[in-house]
Write a structure and sequence with these properties.
alpha/beta; 5-stranded parallel beta sheet; 6 helices; globular; binds [cytidine-5'-phosphate] glycerylphosphoric acid ester
């Protein structure tokens, strides 16, 4: 059983998120998503439209997702990898080379998948406002 883990806010869940989750699941058998809490989003400088409970619930409906856990801080990742016996951490290419993930290479495989072009939560918010 190959276990995959990914992190994110996943606000206003869109096909860029879903395509990442689909490709992440294809790298193993069990996909864990650590979704940022509202408090951690403040630390990340993000204000999500959907609150943590809603974002968690929406992710739990995605067929590729097996477990959703809270992402409360930057520092929990190594503990998460150990606690959940993770083989591979997956992130979108905007995180490629980021020390927060490169540091995990001693513990597990780290894979960066190409971001989906022309979709983002910010773009959706702007387009809808227009
Ligand atoms: N993503 C993507 N394509 C998009 C938009 C997002 O592949 N068009 C990916 C991102 O690269 C990320 C995941 O979807 O891997 C979730 O995106 P965000 O919710 O924006 O995540 P972020 O705020 O970058 O949080 O500790 C890590 C952070 O929690 C990551």
């Amino acid at each position: 059983m190959k276990r995959v883990l990914t992190y994110g806010t996943f606000d206003l869940l869109h096909y860029g998120h879903v395509r990442l989750l689909k490709r992440a699941k294809a790298l193993g058998d069990y996909l864990i998503v650590a979704v940022s809490t509202d408090e951690f989003n403040k630390i990340k400088g993000k204000k999500a439209y959907n609150n943590f409970e809603t974002r968690k619930e929406m992710l739990e409906t995605v067929r590729y997702v097996d477990l959703v856990i809270p992402e409360k801080n930057w520092e929990q990742k190594a503990d998460d990898v150990r606690k959940y016996c993770v083989d591979t951490v997956v992130m979108g290419s905007d995180w490629r080379g980021n020390e927060k993930f490169e540091a995990l290479k001693d513990l597990c495989e780290v894979v960066y998948l190409e971001r989906t072009e022309n979709v983002s939560t910010t773009k959706i918010k702007n387009d809808l406002h227009l």
